[in-house]
Amino acid sequence: MNDLPPAATPDPLARLYRTRPDTAATLARIWDVLPDARLVGGAVRDLLCGRAVTDMDLATAVPPSDVMARLRAAGIKVVPTGLAHGTVTAVIDGRPHEITTLRRDVQTDGRHAQVAWTDDWREDAARRDFTINAMSCDRAGVVHDPFGGQADLAAARVRFVGDARARITEDALRILRFFRFNARYGGDVPDAEAMAAATALAPMVERLSVERIWSELRRILAGPRVAETLALMEHAGVLARILPEGYDLSRLGRLLACDGPVDPLLRCAALFAGDVAEIAQRLRLSRADGRFMLAVRDGAAPHPGMTAHDIARMLAADPAEILIARAWLRQAHELGRPDARWDDLRDAIARIPRPVFPLAGRDVVAAGCTPGPRVGEVLEQVRQWWLAGGCEAARAACLAHLRQVLAG
């Protein structure tokens, strides 16, 4: 498919400059150095469909060493962030802009690609994953669209560039990216060729690193149409391969039906089946994420009707964010729909300060208890008394009760 003529193509730069006027000067500095450079990929796609643009990546036919030399000569800070793949980062006013030399694949193994530089824009676009990501925009605002990305955007269709199987064979991560992009840009019916290729090549996802799998899964869970997307992944045989321990789409669906927060970790806690600790370890979640997942799935969950003292006692054991997450899961299990009582419960948990038991072992020793196992026993006895009173007793009252325990 030939590039659309300029007259038929909306100017994405006009919208960009209206919404982010500071960007005009930044891009002008880059274009003064690299006049052939074009905005590429997601920036062009999102400008054309009216979405907010975060990263503004560019491409050029100039080799990366020359790109760096030209930028430095113009007084622009440049960082060689990915020279093996032709990418450098220009930093202007503290904002990074990736600039990548046009490439062609020399060899791929389903995970990595060896590339060579080219000056052929179509050849570079042909190695991209989807037609909506293969467009570019030059300094004049002309959109170059060799594979019909604009038509696919208008039709809410996520379609691979060229042969879907070939694109997936080049990089198996494109299977997961297809489902993520389809959720955000696709319609109710996914592209048939893409689905067929993803289904046939689903075993390839097992060759991906767990870090890449988790990165894509997390984005899917934080995006739109989560339930529908995971159902498609299950139908294609992909979900079972990235979550071999098992999954529970019904439980996740009930959480989503409660209109819970867009929290991928909370949604994982509902989705994952089996031993959460093992799954977190296999996917190499961060320690903080792993601890959150375990804490949310284990331990007592609050429920409507609890008193302030009840909530305070729970807060003494776990922070508010954990209790709130447990409340969402319990609401999903018991109700599976929005309910004001549960909202009020979570508001109360967020409002009540987390109580802190005011004594420590040294206080027990100072009160006359001989150091040893009895110190912990006495401290716990006082703590249980403090909990029973709704965690309201101050330090002085706790010390008085400590003396009573030791006297008894």
TrEMBL record:
Cofactor(s) this protein cannot do without: Mg(2+)
InterPro entries the UniProt entry points to: Bact_CCA-adding_enz_type3_sf, NT_sf, PolA_pol_head_dom, PolyA_RNA-bd
Domain annotation Poly A polymerase head: ranges: 37-159
Keywords from the named record: Magnesium, Metal-binding, Nucleotide-binding, Nucleotidyltransferase, RNA-binding, Transferase, tRNA processing
Gene3D superfamilies according to UniProt: Beta Polymerase, domain 2, cca-adding enzyme, domain 2
CDD domains found in the cross-reference section: NT_ClassII-CCAase
Ranges where the tRNA nucleotidyltransferase/poly(A) polymerase RNA and SrmB- binding domain occurs: 192-245
Similarity remark: Belongs to the tRNA nucleotidyltransferase/poly(A) polymerase family.
Protein name from the UniProt record: CCA tRNA nucleotidyltransferase
